[in-house]
Amino acid sequence: PKPLRVGRAQDSELWIDEPGISRKHAHIEAVRDGSGGFDLVDAGSANGTFVYGERVARHRLADGELVQFGATAVFRYSVTDRQHQEMLANLYEASVRDPLTGIYNREHFDERLRSELAFARRHGTQVSLVMFDIDHFKRVNDTYGHQAGDRVLVQLARTVSDAVRIEDVVARYGGEEFVVILRNIDVAGSAVLAERLRQLVERLEVEHEGRRLQVTASFGCACLSCCVERTGPTLIATADMRLFEAKRAGRNRVVAS
User: Where are the extended beta strands (E) located within 25-77?
Assistant: First the structure.
């Protein structure tokens, strides 16, 4: 198997967003003697790789050892069987996913936005945010029932998830409101995506008890460079304000400035 890369580089399998971590800090590689063990290898990091406080260049890992990267990132190495790994993966997925729609939840969105903003500031790249919600969603629930409303939410979430890049983050922000984090995309690019999503939602037909339900959505777009303060709360507030403008202008539209 390929070594597991540890560092501050965006493509690291174990990405640690800490200033004391090198871009290519260390890696963990399988031992080729058939034992099933793993070696921890420092990749010439500036602040070192440690096991129980002792700096190492290469170290054969044992179950339960404390591994430290730089000054602050501490992990415990644990050996698990495949069944245990699958259970842990399922527990993690359940903790970051919205139980109804299956997309990411608000807590995971908040965490990912902080990480994407930190990366963008450090490397001088862009981050955009698209916020949208379903127009007159209360009417769907009041007219057809909450089960119909749930089906609309599920199918809309699936439609949007299928339409974005694998590196983009789609999350349920709350109720019928959704957000998409777009890495290295400016506000013009986010508006292009939002318009494509708007059209997909407008064409979406949701079947429920012999009826075909159709909805529309309103979108607000913002990017880091169009915010007075380059912070997560300001980015969210700007996108939310533009979403409000889209609804006030008649709904089923995109506002990006």
Answer: 26-30, 38-42, 49-51, 54-55, 58-60, 66-69, 73-76
